[in-house]
Amino acid sequence: MTPTATAVSVAHATASRGFLSPSGVEVAFVLVGLVTFGAALVSVTTRQLVHAALWLVVALGGLAIEYLLLTAEFIAWVQVLIYVGSVVVLLLFGLMLTKAPIGRSPDADSGNRWAALAVAVAAAAALVWVVVDAFRTTWIDFGGAAAGSTKATGASLFQNWVLPFEALSVLLLAALVGAIVLSRKAKAETNAPPVSRSVNSRTVPGGSPSVPDSRNHPIEGTGREAAQQEGAR
Amino acid sequence: MHLAYPAVLSALLFCTGLYGVLARRNAILVLMSVELMLNAVNLNLVAFDVWLSKAARDTLHSGQALTLFTITIAAAEIGIGLAIVLAVHRNRGTADIDRLRDTAEGHGPDGDDDGDAAAAAKKAEASA
């Protein structure tokens, strides 16, 4: 960002816009932002674990609408596909597989929640103060073509960012293999009975080594599904 | 649009996620809060990319490319993280991060966990 561009932007902003006369996009952004922030707050404070995941859907969907309001439509649909479509489903599967209680669980928050609240409020105050002070006279100009259309994003992604893109596909492959390796059971020492097998009562402990028991672990399938969704993207 | 709106919203979302990471006990809820923090960063990246693509002469759309990379890495992270949490839960019977104190310093052995060393060894080889 060159200083001349900043000066031009500032002059343009002060000439044509006022702080107390918001445009329609700003009003919509603030309203959706309030819904998103409220959903995020409920998601980190509720004592019902499944409700936390479902409120996270509201927060992530609100963020997708914010991306649309910022004219980044491709990011918005990727957000809907990846986060709302697969990450929250993975989280719900994780809650189900760790036998999370359905109703209110009184020990959802640890003992240091007041210290955490103090840290979070202090960080929020400092960040909001700094950000508002820094960008008080900066405006986003929505005129012209959309900045985040699929054409612009794809052109920049496949012209300037090809190498990170390909490296990312290798990383996804590594994550896929890693998730499968982590979630399958060790097969070598099946004659030694496991120490504490309080979960997964479906699997027979100490079974014969010839029986493949990887079919009993749905996380393997969900990890592969998420990676396939990633790959399809 | 005033640039302070998305910046303030992302700062607030980040601090919400920070509170969740510090205050939650279940490991999956901690992962959810990490997702909130990553999304706050994504909103910042998108907002500043839109601003820069109009204010500067020519940009590489690096904010949106980085947002896509962050979303992908977050998906990979949630897959690996849930696999680790499930392995821990399978071996230890709990997913509460307060009770996983094998590597904690300054405390004696908790004593309520029979076969602690064996479980730790099994957890180590399960995560290896």
Automatic annotation (TrEMBL), chain A:
EC number: 7.1.1.-
This protein's UniProt keywords: Cell membrane, Membrane, NAD, Quinone, Transmembrane, Transmembrane helix
Catalytic activity from the UniProt record: a quinone + NADH + 5 H(+)(in) = a quinol + NAD(+) + 4 H(+)(out)
Location in the cell: Cell membrane
One Gene Ontology CC term in the entry: plasma membrane
Pfam families linked to this entry: Oxidored_q3 (PF00499)
Membrane spanning residue stretches: 27-45, 52-70, 76-102, 114-132, 161-182
Coiled coil: none
InterPro entries the UniProt entry points to: NADH_UbQ/plastoQ_OxRdtase_su6 (IPR001457), Nuo/plastoQ_OxRdtase_6_NuoJ (IPR042106)
Region (Disordered): 191-233
Membrane topology listed for this record: Multi-pass membrane protein
Protein name according to UniProt: NADH-quinone oxidoreductase subunit J
Species for this entry: Streptomyces mangrovisoli
From TrEMBL, chain B:
Ribosomal protein among keywords: no
UniProt keyword terms in alphabetical order: Cell membrane, Membrane, NAD, Quinone, Translocase, Transmembrane, Transmembrane helix, Transport
Enzyme Commission number: 7.1.1.-
Known catalytic reactions: a quinone + NADH + 5 H(+)(in) = a quinol + NAD(+) + 4 H(+)(out)
Leader sequence segment: none
GO molecular function annotations of the record: NADH dehydrogenase (quinone) (non-electrogenic) activity; quinone binding
Location relative to the cell: Cell membrane; Membrane
Membrane-topology descriptor: Multi-pass membrane protein
Membrane-spanning intervals of the chain: 66-89
Any Pfam family the entry gives: Oxidored_q2
GO CC list: NADH dehydrogenase complex; plasma membrane
Annotated Basic and acidic residues bias: 98-110
GO terms for biological process, alphabetical: ATP synthesis coupled electron transport
Chain segments annotated as coiled-coil in the UniProt record: none
Matching InterPro entries: NADH_UbQ_OxRdtase_chain4L/K (IPR001133), NUOK/Mnh_C1-like (IPR039428)
Superkingdom of source: Bacteria
Chain spans, region Disordered: 98-128
Subunit structure: NDH-1 is composed of 14 different subunits. Subunits NuoA, H, J, K, L, M, N constitute the membrane sector of the complex.
Described function: NDH-1 shuttles electrons from NADH, via FMN and iron-sulfur (Fe-S) centers, to quinones in the respiratory chain. The immediate electron acceptor for the enzyme in this species is believed to be a menaquinone. Couples the redox reaction to proton translocation (for every two electrons transferred, four hydrogen ions are translocated across the cytoplasmic membrane), and thus conserves the redox energy in a proton gradient.
Protein name stated in the entry: NADH-quinone oxidoreductase subunit K
Organism: Streptomyces mangrovisoli
